[in-house]
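Hi F.,

I've been meaning to write this up properly since the lab meeting, where we talked about keeping a consistent format for the predictions we share between groups. The idea is simple: the sequence comes first, exactly as it goes in, then the structure tokens exactly as they come out, then a line or two of notes. No screenshots and no reformatting. I'm using this chain as the first example so we have something concrete to point to.
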Amino acid sequence: MSQHAFTVNRAPLDPDGAPRDTTITDDEAAAGARAVVRLFGHWELTDAQARILLGGMSGTTYTRWKRGEFGRIATDLKARLSTLLGIHKALRILYTENERAYRWISAANAHFNDDSPLDVMLNGQIADLSRVRNYLDAARG
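Output, unedited:
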């Protein structure tokens, strides 16, 4: 597989203060896609919901993804995968029980005007995914 890459817009720092490489290769994106498809199963999303979170992906393409056929993953989609996996990571840190972490995504949340985080993300913009991730990142400190 080719090693096309992109750089995430934020520049985390190494412990010594130097900018860390945030490049996501195609192989890493494919691994992220596999993880996100599994995550959507835990979140009990419909295919239609999953496709919205993935930027309006076609049904045919999502069916291929569920079979493990990813092809080339565009920059926007790599950013979405990274954000979704960041949400998952934050939930795993905040909740020791997996099922509680998986249920959180669909539960009403006062911070989101009693909408669920999933409702917020289903607005479909990457900023909506980031809003949920930023909330969780702040909650975990």
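Notes:
Residues 1-9 have pLDDT under 50 and may be disordered.
The chain has one domain: 5-140.

If this format works for you, I'll send the rest the same way.

G.
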